[in-house]
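Sample entry (177 residues):
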Amino acid sequence: MNRLRSRLRIAVVTSDETTRSRLAELVALSGHDVVEFNAGLDAILTDEAIDDPIPAPAVAIGWVEGDIAGRLPPDATAQQIDAALRAVAAGLIVHEPGSQSRAFRPLAEDAWPILTPREIQVLAALRDGLSNKAAARRLGISPHTVKFHIESLFKKLGAASRSEAVAKGLKRQIVEI
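Predicted structure, serialized as tokens:
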């Protein structure tokens, strides 16, 4: 991951020159450097789909198809753009304000489970091959509590074994190697 600097190197990729000039001005107002697409980038600001693979995480202004790390509305301010660019450069995901419904609804089958921070720590201990007792020592909790969290992980991840839970956690990037 790139080490964050006060000024990021941002490529602006747009569908037309007028939009590029406007977005490049917002990037400059945000205190960042506008660079060419192939330069050593920290992030990309775009209003169009970019062909894969992209060399850095991207923030899309408006509706853009593809696997984009950040999404902002067309009327995003320089402050919102700055925050989104810094966030995606740090490896985070940014959603357009109001894009997430606050209403409760059933999760889709392919939706990611919502894990507690402790469940993620237990999953990391499983990834490291620790026994319940060793995981309990590492986390400062009882082996019974570790077992409780493992059962919860199995249910949330739809896993039948420790290795399957770890594999699903890795696939969904809940934990890393």
